[in-house]
Amino acid sequence: MHRTHRVSFRLGCAAIAALIAGCATQRPYYRAESFKPATPFSRRMQGRGDVVCWSVKQAFLSQGYMLRDSIDTAIMVGTKDYQPNADTDVTLRLQATCVDNGDGTSTVFATASQEVGKLQTLKQSISAGVSIATVTWPSSSGKALRTVSRKTIRNQAFYNRFYALVEKFAAHDANGERQAPARAHH
Asked: Which of 60, 90, 122, 134 is the Cys-Cys partner for 129 at CB 3.0 to 4.6 Å?
């Protein structure tokens, strides 16, 4: 009997060690991150920072994005919702930051994500009883919008279209066709 306990103890320790080793072999997401010089998330363009940042704002608004208030005027976050059908809601979230490079050019950094929500029927139930003598029965059902997917947009063509529109507005500003608003000094 004593020997049986030792074997059980050893098997238990081996199982715990295998479990810990299995958890340790999963790579964290940040280790898979590869920093590359060329990505769809940034673009260098002609124009001073104030002109380019104003052009980013124009690009957002001209495409129906709602801008959120931001403490930092160089960071803009826009969202756009649409409903492809009665049971589906899609939200695009686009965030852009502009930086003046000090040489007549600016860099715009952008990242976008898409969230899809579907209208789903939720069933509710009522439970009554004590301990193991509990009875559950359906009480009602209702519909609710639930997120079914969320992903970062990595499509180069999406970003190319955004940057092309920003460059178009920046070119208009550079040619004097529009004036960027004066920045308020605090």
From this structure: 134
67: left (phi over 0), alpha (psi -120 to 50) or beta: beta
Q: Please tell me the distance from the alpha carbon of residue 38 to that of residue 81, in angstroms, as a whole number.
A: 29
Instruction: Write the pLDDT tens digit of every residue in 93-148.
Output: 999 999 999 999 999 999 999 999 998 877 776 777 676 767 666 666 677 778 88
Which of 172, 166, 178, 177 lies closest to 59, judged by CA? 166
SS3 73: coil
Q: Mean pLDDT, to the nearest integer, of 153-162?
A: 95
The encoded tokens of residue 42 equal: 């940034």
Task: Measure Cα distances from 65 to 16, 23, 79, 91, 158 in Å.
Answer: 52, 42, 5, 10, 15
Q: Domains in the chain, ordered, with CATH? A: 37-124+144-178 (3.30.310.80)
Is the entire prediction scored with pTM above 0.85? no
